[in-house]
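@channel sequence for tomorrow's demo:
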Amino acid sequence: MLQWQPYALIPLSGAVVCAVVSWSAWRRRRSTPAAKALALTTLGVVEWAVAEAVAYSFTSIEAQVAIGLAIYPGVAATVLGAFWLSRVIVDRDATLRPVVKALLLVEPIVITMAAATNGWHHLVIASGKLVGHPPLNVPHVGVIFWLHSAYSYVLVTIGMLRVVKARRTATGLYRRQLTTVLVGPAFLVAVNVLTLVLLANGGAVDIGVIGFVASGVAFWWALFRQGMLRLVPVARSFVFDRVTDALVVVDRDGLVIDVNPAADELIRLLQPALPESLIGLPSLLLVPGNGPGDRLADGGHVVRVGERQIDLDIRSGDLTDRNGTSIGRVVVARDTTELNDKKRELSAANDRLHEQLRTIGRLQADLAEQAIRDDLTGLYNRRHLMRTLDAELARAQRSGGPLSVVLLDIDFFKRVNDRFGHGVGDDLLVVIAGVLSAAARQGDTVARYGGEEFVVLLPGTTPEQAWNRAQEWRRRCAAASVRTEQGPLSATFSAGVACFPESGTSSVVLLHAADKALYRAKAEGRDRVLLAESLAA
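structure tokens (generated this afternoon):
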């Protein structure tokens, strides 16, 4: 017979609270691995509490026993979820091997099947009787019940011990969260153990339902008041043990009180002879060459270990208590040897690259210069002469200043080649080119026009000034000589001088005027310089 019992309000209240927590946790399942575990744990409590509340609403012994057996899937889910939750709360990176996961699922499946088939074997609930008013079932439990209870409490205890161990070193919000995680399951376990004791001694009241409310409130507090799923602190293994930088905690007396694995590895590299445990050692012993009272300043340091150089980047910060009193400091050291080696290699490669670019620039400049130079004499070639002449004419036209062009030709050069050979002729050309280059002033352009002909551009030079300079060149060339098998050989030249604007206003006209003056000089006996005729004449 179904009859509502006010006593059922106690487990139902816990079920409602746990249902809200389970729903809220599941919504946050993507933000933290603890959310799924908490959802499973509280959902198991919901099923457990609802099944027990429904069982209280029946007055027949058969109904209470049958429905009471329905609590076991919820119990199994609660135990499994609590174990999982304890792992991810302590270490969010915790994982279980597939084999372990499969083994953990065996017991929930077995107890659920055993509860469902209890009418055949009576190994979970052997029998029961109704006691008191309202009538409550006082079951006589079987061997599977006791095995299930032992397994559940062992698994929950293992998980809670992990939380207790983590709480010892936790601080701040993380410590408060771990405390809350312990309170709910611990209270639930305590009242259920007391219930088991009462049941084993023929007790008539199941006080385990009080644990539902306590655990639901505890999980609600952790979720909504402490933000357990919104802010799950990172375990110490992440912030200290797994950081790749070397971390050393030193007390105010300079003694080492903690090191992470990265620091231990680095210190062993620097000081292989140190004892196995670094805790309690003076911090000055950790780095070679660090004398008594020395403290490594923040910044870069170079430490030599044998023939090896190790670069360290040191950073430190003071540790203070709540009153601001110094209690020590934490030193962060990073081995930057590889990074600095790469920087040095990069810098050297960069220097080589810049030197190569400078070399390429010089080669390009040389190639560009060679493209405008005559191979034999080293003077500018005819192509460059014409570009320069056009540019100088344009400048002279803008400024209104004079521009003189001297075209000269070595006298009897063909005879030199015929008599002494082309090698001597080339030597003579080089000598003449050297004389002209030596006599050139800033802004002048000396070029080999072709064969034994040379052209000199003289910007800002009047015809008379150009004639006088050409005469000086003629005397210097006559005094120069080259060696031959028959003795020293010298040569003279004939030259024509044309000037802008008197002799012409274009490159072609100016060179033609200078050429005509040159041929007149040759016709009049060579070894002389003549001015080109004026356009007005």
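heads up for whoever presents: Residues 338-370 form one domain.
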